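hey can u check if this looks right to u? its 221 residues, i copy pasted from the old doc so theres a chance i mangled smth
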Amino acid sequence: MNVSQALLQRKSVRAYLDKTVEKEKIELILEHAKHAPSGVNMQPWDLCVVSGESKRAIETKLLEAFNGSHDEPMDYEYYPLTWNEPYKTRRRNTGLLMYKTLDIRREDTEKQHKQWEQNYRAFDAPVVMYFFIDESLEKGSYIDYGMFLQSIMLMAEELGLATCTQAALAQYPSIVKEALDVPKNKKLLCGIALGYEEKNALVNSYRTSRIELDEFVKFFY
């Protein structure tokens, strides 16, 4: 597989096989991804790879928080506080596409709630990676981190593994940091679900669209 194939083939996978991911593959992914560029070679990445009982313990607490009265701010604002166009429409269309695929109607709030719960179980992927960044670092390091995350996803694709990057897994940072003994001066950025795709799962059958080049590119010669 080459880079262009991996870029076009990669997608956010929301159903996984009950199949162990070999530790050797995870290490290979990270050995390659660590070569992502970063300003003055700061390499701001800091992550925990979680599976088995550790994963189940964290997701139990996340689900309790989601279904209970627990509430706390994320360590940073992932989404805009006010949704303007065209982002508001793109967000809406993405959600509608998934719910249409799963035949979940707008008025069926219980099914919507159950579907959203899947986020906190990392869609039952066997492995979750939680990503942290030192609170002293600024926006440039967040750009660097994005390149690192993309590198992980592309390497996983090459090795026959599926991923889903999840902001939802950073919704309750204190729970995750306490469970993984991560210092409070580290911000929880996101999680990545990792595993083998359940190709027959309905939720994995849809693909989101991408805008055309002329909608976001200007060429100057």
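The chain is about 40% helix and 15% strand.
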